[in-house]
Design goal:
Layout (H helix, E strand, L loop, with lengths): L33 H20 L12 H14 L12 H16 L3 H6 L6 E5 L2 H20 L5 E5 L5 H9 L2 E5 L10 H6 L5 E7 L11 H11 L2 E6 L6 H6 L16 E4 L12 E5 L2 H5 L3 E3 L7 E3 L8 H38 L5 E2 L6 E5 L5 H10 L5 E3 L4 E5 L2 H4 L5 H17 L6 H6 L5 H19 L2
Parallel strand pairs: 2-3, 2-4, 4-5, 5-6
Antiparallel strand pairs: 1-7, 6-7, 8-9, 10-11, 11-13, 12-13
The structure holds pyridoxal-5'-phosphate.
């Protein structure tokens, strides 16, 4: 084994450490010394960090300033051995969790709820991430529909652009997820189409603030009115936008109302591990009142191991993450979040201008912190192929083919990142023109989906890829 980095051409990008570091098929008979272990870990982490510290990677690393991460790691270390649910031994855990929930609720204008109905009070739980927050809310609507409306075959209506965690919930919890397509010109869901899909089995509707593909905010005010009119739940997925839109709004940008000021909104997810700048592994799900939250809790009163209860999907949870998340919110403060949002929006505005300055590219919707675009003149996947050669990692979108760049803090740490991006995009468009009529590499990944047979092939490919990655 040699810890020397081999030449790029000899590296399998999915298994770059094969042959370089020991591969463990079983627990080593004799434990390794700490120093060499830490060396190995830091080598991998440092090399991987180089890829995004350039600011060229969309989304993924939200804060990741070294000082901030060091501080959160220290906060984590005090409680890394603690199970958050062990509140009798560690009362600090529920102190911090309840405050994370309260701070998030306040940021998302929970006070408006009391004005609408004095009996309502926003509450919630901390979960392991956006997907779990969404899954918990979907389970709540299933159980609420069953208990209060006698619905045994629940349906939830979601825009095509809502995150796949909603489909995952449908799959896990036996809920029929009814998809509403979005289309040009604004790529947001059509409220009329949502209302037309409501039937006696509908327990809830969904909107995003903003959605992952385009970062766009659905017409939430209309969706809120529809939910009220039909007495059904309305979940706003703020996993991505929940911790940045409030600050973007405060900066003076014109943002449609997206939070508890909407009187039909009954639940909302917001990820502390994205723009909350916490460590990976936490999110918050909020409900308009405790009646709804109660449907999330789980209890086995007569288990041989003693009474068992858990408020979220997970059993034991890391006290380290609770402490780090709490610390992130309290350390950042409104001032820190506003400053972060300002830096992010300055970059996003420049990227938006850059895209608008290239006639072959079409901006999708009215972007805020995610800038997405497509083209009717060139194959956008060729543009992505070119950008990859320049070290950029955009996120590719499909149906229709498009790309997006989600601006996070690493882009604000590099001076004028939008400038090289603009000139590379221009070159990328010229490259795409020169490749007209040929199949882009990116198409190999994205060209299949969309038909039943294509979707089956893609699924087989992706599952096979997981199998490959899980092989030591
Ligand atoms: C809009 C939106 N919702 C939900 C999620 C799921 O979050 P997580 O990956 O933390 O489970 C994401 C993740 O990117 C997202 O962008």
């Amino acid at each position: 084994m040699s810890d020397q980095k081999p030449e790029e051409k000899d590296i399998d990008p999915n298994k770059p450490y094969k042959g370089r570091f020991e591969s463990y098929h079983s627990i080593p008979e004799k434990g390794r010394d700490k120093k060499s272990l830490i060396n190995e870990l830091s080598t991998m982490a440092n090399e991987e960090n180089e890829k995004w510290k350039t600011g060229q990677v969309s989304g993924t690393f939200y804060h990741a300033g070294d000082e901030h991460r060091k501080f959160l790691n220290e906060a984590f270390s005090f409680f890394s051995h603690v199970n958050t649910l062990q509140f009798d031994l560690c009362p600090s855990m529920f102190k911090m969790e309840s405050e994370i929930i309260s701070m998030t609720a306040k940021m998302l204008n929970c006070d408006a709820v009391k004005e609408q109905n004095p009996e309502d009070e926003v509450c919630g739980t901390v979960t392991s991430g956006g997907s779990e927050s969404i899954m918990m809310a979907m389970k709540v609507y299933r159980d609420w529909g069953r208990a209060e409306k006698n619905i045994s075959a629940p349906e939830i209506i979601m825009p095509d652009t809502a995150h796949p965690a909603f489909d995952k919930s449908g799959n896990y919890f036996g809920i029929k997820m009814v998809h509403i397509p979005v289309s040009e010109p604004d790529f947001r869901v059509d409220p009329k189409a949502v209302e037309a899909a409501i039937n006696k089995n509908t327990v809830a509707i969904v909107g995003s603030a903003g959605n992952y593909p385009y970062g766009l905010i659905d017409p939430l005010e209309q969706l809120s009115d529809i939910a009220l009119k039909h007495s059904i739940g309305f979940h706003v997925d703020g996993c991505l936008g929940g911790f940045i839109l409030p600050w973007i709004e405060k900066l003076g940008y014109s943002i449609p109302t997206f939070d508890f000021r909407l009187s039909g909104l009954t639940s909302m997810s917001a990820d502390t591990h994205k723009y909350g700048f916490g460590l990976k592994g936490t999110s918050v799900v909020l409900y308009r009142n405790n009646t709804l939250r109660r449907y999330q809790y789980f209890n086995v009163p007569d288990w041989a191991g003693g009474m068992y209860a858990s408020p979220t999907g997970a059993g034991s949870r890391s006290g380290g993450l609770t402490a780090a998340t709490w610390s992130s919110l309290v350390y950042m403060g409104e001032e820190g979040y506003l400053k972060g949002a300002k830096g992010i929006m300055d970059v996003a505005d420049k990227i938006k201008e850059a895209v608008q300055g290239i006639p072959e590219l079409i901006l999708i919707g009215e972007p805020t912190f995610v800038v997405s675009f497509r083209s009717e003149e060139v194959d956008i996947y060729h543009v992505n192929d070119f950008m990859k050669t320049k070290g950029w990692r955009f996120n590719c979108l499909q149906l229709p083919p498009a790309m997006h760049f989600c601006v996070t803090m690493p882009q604000t740490a590099v001076p004028d990142i939008a400038e090289p991006m603009a000139s590379d995009l221009k070159e990328g468009v010229e490259y795409a023109k020169s490749k007209a009529g040929t199949v882009a590499q990116t198409t190999a990944l994205y060209g299949l989906a969309g038909t039943l047979e294509g979707n089956e092939q893609v699924t087989e490919l992706v599952f096979g890829y997981f199998d490959y990655l899980y092989a030591v």
